[in-house]
Amino acid sequence: MKISLRDNGVTRILLLLSSLLVACEPETRRVLDREVVAVGSQGEALYGKTGSYWPADASGITVIPVCWTTANSNSYKTWVRQTVEEQWDNNSSVRFTGWDACNANTPVNAIRIKEEDSNARSYVGVTSENPSMYLNFTFANWSQSCNDAVDDAWAPGDDREYCIRVIALHEFGHALGFYHEQDSPENTPNTPGYCNNTINQQPDGQVITQYDPDSSMSYCAQWNRKTLSTLDVQGLRKIYGVAPVEFRSQYSPFPSACTLVNEPADYNHGWADNYLCTAGSEGVSWHNSGLPPLLTKRCTQITEVLDLNGWLDNYICVPTYSPLQFTYSSLGPVAGMRCASWNEPADPNNWENNYLCYTQRLAFSPAGKIMGTHCAELNEPNDPDGWKDNFLCTDQAEGLAFSATGTIAGKRCTLVDEPNDSAHGWGNNYICVSTNSTLQFQWSNSGPIANKTCVAWNEPLDSAHGWSDNYLCY
């Protein structure tokens, strides 16, 4: 009998997790959308505890090691990695690394994947289990419709590839610490998007976003999702945020504030697609020939003395008003600073020990909190244009807080006002700090203030209402 996989029209909200096994219900015909939080064959609930999310490192990046306990099947493993990196990595600070065979050097806390023809399942959140995730590539005995020589309408393209990708997306969501969306307390009968499919409400669940019928973590939407939903991304960024400054040796669509940092004379060694990315719009620019405009920009030379392929006149620059203060080192990280590794793996000329280090007292992000910093959420609930995942962050605790309804008692507050967006509530919004903070804010809705340090307060989705030239200065 053929397994029916269809969208029941419904559910989701990212919920908190812990170290617990998300296993599939043991049926005679194990169907992929019958995974439940359970152990053993009786479906006994195994509840986790809070604190299961993977931690960010000192640079604000959430590095999660991944390895395989089973050999071969490299093309299928590539599909898994591509999906995970394109969806979970490219929308947050998360960086799944490794992807090789598990060995003695694999860190204690890692995702260890076993490939076998059984129900797909994963431990939830940080784990040292071995294996901690099970994926199926053959579908000979389980979810056979994924590989039965019938081209099913619910699986666009090759059925087996489609199944491998959607399963990987879902299981890595568990590995990141997210429950099934249908377990959300907001998933109730007779409400829009109700998903009546294997509900196991979690008493330790953390509601991160509003309930999402389209989530990749919902049984009622999973088979229609090879990508994260809008609320999946929003919830992911609320938990894992974005990296403050990161060097990338290949293009990524996120974050959007990425600057190409190529050296044309060194094209043989992979420098055509390297980027420096920042959480917000910091006005970063790259100069690879001659002196940059030093009167209007603050520039830092990027050079590796052992690489003679054009690396004598390269500079990374920011506007003179920027809070970003760069220091470059070709001898390892600089003590007391956050550092981003500046390394093109394809270049053999000693780049593995190069770092761009920085301090940044104040930073703005339009796409999630900045990991490793102290952040205040900036949400005007009456504004529909992208403000649900905006944050202002400081390196040190400054008692930062935002109010959309007036000043906050006991804090020193500064009006945040965009006259062109008053229809959406931007007339009574304040950013505040502790009274003992040395930050003395000034607000400008017409560009940076002369002789001040300023950070762009810019939601790209709201540029039509004047938010492209707003700055918070100090």
The CATH architecture classification of the largest domain is: 3-Layer(aba) Sandwich
Amount of helix = under 10%
Strand order of the largest sheet: 2-1-6-7-5-3-4
Average pLDDT confidence is 86
Q: Gyration radius, to the nearest Å?
A: 24 Å
Number of helices: 3
CATH class of the largest domain: Alpha Beta
What does this structure look like?
This protein has three domains: 220 residues, Collagenase (Catalytic Domain), CATH 3.40.390.10; 116 residues, no CATH class; 111 residues, no CATH class. Helices cover 9% and strands 23% of the residues. The chain has three helices and 25 strands. It has a seven-stranded mixed β-sheet, with helices on one face. Helix 1 links the parallel strand 3 and strand 4. The chain is globular, with a radius of gyration of 24 Å. The N and C termini lie far apart (68 Å).
Question: What topology emerges from the helices and strands here?
Answer:
Blueprint: E1 20-24, E2 35-37, E3 62-68, H1 74-87, E4 94-101, E5 111-115, E6 121-124, E7 133-135, H2 159-176, H3 230-240, E8 245-248, E9 258-260, E10 275-278, E11 285-287, E12 297-301, E13 315-319, E14 325-329, E15 338-341, E16 355-359, E17 362-365, E18 374-377, E19 391-394, E20 401-403, E21 411-416, E22 429-434, E23 442-444, E24 454-456, E25 471-473
Parallel strand pairs: 3-4, 3-5, 5-7
Antiparallel strand pairs: 1-2, 1-6, 6-7, 8-10, 9-10, 11-13, 12-13, 14-16, 15-16, 17-19, 18-19, 20-22, 21-22, 23-25, 24-25
